[in-house]
Design a protein that fits this description.
Elements lengths: L13 H11 L3 E2 L11 H12 L12 H15 L9 E4 L1 H13 L5 E6 L5 H7 L3 E6 L9 H7 L4 E7 L11 H11 L5 E5 L19 H4 L2 E6 H4 L8 E4 L2 H14 L5 H10 L4 H4 L1 H15 L15 E5 L8 H12 L1 E2 L1 E2 L12 E5 L4 H13 L1
The structure holds 4'-deoxy-4'-aminopyridoxal-5'-phosphate (PMP) and glutamine.
């Protein structure tokens, strides 16, 4: 039997590779993005209560209604933006499923989708599995700034979607209000859909404001927001997220969603809905993670790594060009094997594996782990 792969150049994700190597080498794992401290006991108890109170059968296709109301209230509170809980919000099995379903609901063979590199790894395979063509715009370290004239030069009648991500994984940069206005101007009057991956919306530092697409009325009308409770509530293994969009887009999303997953596990949704009644559960994240970022950076200030402090996400990029000119994948593997510290090389998210000699370290870790990691970084 001869199988012609639909994704011939895709192998195992770097997150799986680096986490497996970290386990094998008994290394501190600052590679794959997940916390090494527990999910809140109160949230765990609320999920248990939901199971004990009968939330064990299919949730409504679009998600538990209490959760959709809680999400809708959050957008009203934070952005003064209205998403109708019944028509404009759908709960998904993590952001990954939301992203895949958005792409599959709208992208036809040969449609062009613009993405910015370095790009989170699930965008391109979703486009290609649906026959679309990825138009990648490579951004440059260390600032990863967008040249909007370059973006304009790639937009044509073939452009069906633009995928954006701020705060940005893996670089830890954020888009400004001006970036969003530029995007709004470029897409005004077109049929381009914007997929705004906002999974790190609550992890933004130094008093910066998250520039959600919902703050820009014209942009909002053509946009999906995708979000992940795994990132917000420290439980990436639960795989619960959601997406929001105006009704005319959400109708099409749900046509695909109902045959893709139908609905997402019910007790987690109910537990999260109850937990979100207290807005502190998500609003306190900035302070929590800024302390972790600052702890790590203060401890490695004398090391040979160079850095610009992360502006958002729970990742910090470190430039090792003063230490070695090794390829970043080789250096990341050597650090894991020889120094027992795992990270993620950025080249895997770039066009043609562009190597800027930078590695990504996840600081969603206990202070003890961050102190141990910084001791290693100072020895290198
Ligand atoms: N987008 C980005 C930028 C991410 O970092 C992640 C990983 N959390 C996802 C999407 C996927 O989120 P989830 O784990 O909820 O599927
Ligand atoms: N989002 C996580 C990260 O960037 C990884 C998720 C995964 O392993 N697919 O590290």
């Amino acid at each position: 039997m001869h199988i012609k792969s639909k994704l011939p150049s895709v192998g195992t994700t770097i997150f799986t590779i680096m986490s497996a190597l970290a386990n094998e080498c008994k290394a501190l794992n600052l590679s794959q993005g997940f916390p090494n401290y527990p999910s809140s006991q109160r949230l765990n108890d609320l999920v248990t209560n939901a199971m004990n109170n009968g939330y064990n059968q299919y949730a409504p296709m679009a998600g538990n209604l209490d959760l959709r109301f809680a999400i809708s209230n959050k957008y009203q509170l934070l952005y003064n933006s209205t998403y109708h809980p019944e028509k404009e919000i759908t709960v998904t099995a993590g952001a990954t499923q939301g992203i895949y379903t958005i792409v599959s609901a709208f992208i036809r063979p040969k449609d062009e989708v613009i993405i910015f590199k370095p790009a989170y790894d699930c965008y391109q395979p979703a486009i290609e599995l649906n026959g679309g063509k990825t138009i990648a715009i490579q951004l440059s370290a260390p600032d990863y700034k967008v040249d909007w004239n370059e973006v304009a030069s790639h937009i044509s009648s073939k452009t069906k979607m633009i995928i954006i991500n701020s705060p940005h994984n893996p670089s830890g940069t954020i888009w400004s209000k001006n970036d969003m206005l530029q995007l709004q101007n470029l897409t005004r009057g077109t049929n381009i859909i914007v997929l705004s991956d906002e999974v790190y919306e609550h992890i933004i530092f130094d008093n910066e404001q998250h520039q959600s697409v919902c703050l820009f009325e014209d942009l909002k009308q053509r946009s999906f927001i995708t979000a992940s409770f795994g990132k917000t509530f420290h439980n990436t293994g639960w795989k619960v997220g959601y997406c929001c969009a105006p009704e005319h887009l959400m109708v099409e999303f749900r046509k695909a969603h109902q045959f893709n997953v139908f609905s997402v596990n019910h007790p987690m949704q109910k537990g999260i809905a109850d937990y979100m009644q207290d807005s502190g559960t998500y609003l306190d994240l900035n302070t929590f993670f800024q302390q972790k970022r600052d702890l790590l950076l203060s401890l490695i200030s004398e090391s040979r790594f160079k850095f610009k402090p992360s502006k958002g996400t729970y990742f910090q990029v470190l430039d090792y060009s003063d230490i070695t000119d090794e390829h970043d994948v080789d250096f990341a593997k050597r650090l894991t094997k020889d120094y027992q510290l795992a990270s993620i090389p950025l080249s895997v998210f770039n066009e043609k594996d562009k190597d800027d000699n930078v590695l990504r370290f996840c600081f969603a870790k206990t202070d003890e782990t961050l102190i141990k990691a910084s001791e290693i970084l100072c020895r290198i």
